[in-house]
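dumping this here so i dont lose it
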């Protein structure tokens, strides 16, 4: 077997473009997932009938593969008269999928805050919404940050599944060039290296953010 990685140089700009689209999908997907997950978490810990909707959403999404969800959005929704392009379908699929996991992350963070803080805030005249916004959620976010970072990394890697619905992200770009040049090992290895580079940089950024938040907490504690 003769491997020639020099062929990657010619196609590297296109692969980097695909990597940029991968990052864009992950960022938009996780942003939508955070909003959806926060709403689902608040509904799940509420004492209203709406909590059953959150329970059902989390159960359904966590119990089915992301690939199936992407197929339902991209190929299934048009049968109901809802047509989305590959990019919108990818962001929606990644957001809905990550939102179910993020909901549990937020729920765990919120429930980790001692109930006495909520009672003290209410006794001071703060309403439930104000208490959640100013007292509970900022602390819950610090607790949830490591898990949110992990979910971001997972979404970044999961974006490769969007290639099956014709999304020209990093993996599909690599597949296209591999089929044309018959250099499968070279292109898939290059794609793996780019994914590894992106996740490594993202992990470093997240560790730095966690360290800063931890330092701020220690400073305030002093």
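and the seq i came up w/
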């Amino acid at each position: 077997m003769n491997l020639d990685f020099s062929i990657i140089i010619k196609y590297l700009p296109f692969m980097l473009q695909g990597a940029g689209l991968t990052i864009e999908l992950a960022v938009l997907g996780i942003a939508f997932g955070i909003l959806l997950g926060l709403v689902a978490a608040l509904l799940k810990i509420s004492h209203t009938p709406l909590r059953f909707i959150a329970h059902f959403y989390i159960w359904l999404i966590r119990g089915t593969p992301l690939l199936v969800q992407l197929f339902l959005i991209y190929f299934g929704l048009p049968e109901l008269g809802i047509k989305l392009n590959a990019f919108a379908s990818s962001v929606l699929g990644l957001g809905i999928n990550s939102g179910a996991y993020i909901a549990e992350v937020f729920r765990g963070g919120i429930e980790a805050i001692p109930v006495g803080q909520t009672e003290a805030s209410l006794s001071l005249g703060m309403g439930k919404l104000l208490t959640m916004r100013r007292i509970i959620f900022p602390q819950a976010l610090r607790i949830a940050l490591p898990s949110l970072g992990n979910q971001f990394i997972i979404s970044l890697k999961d974006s490769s599944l969007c290639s099956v619905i014709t999304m020209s992200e990093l993996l599909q770009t690599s597949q296209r060039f591999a089929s044309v040049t018959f250099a499968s090992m070279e292109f898939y290895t290059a794609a793996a290296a780019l994914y590894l580079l992106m996740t490594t940089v993202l992990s470093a950024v997240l560790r730095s953010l966690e360290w800063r938040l931890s330092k701020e907490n220690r400073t305030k504690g002093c």
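The chain has a mean pLDDT of 91.
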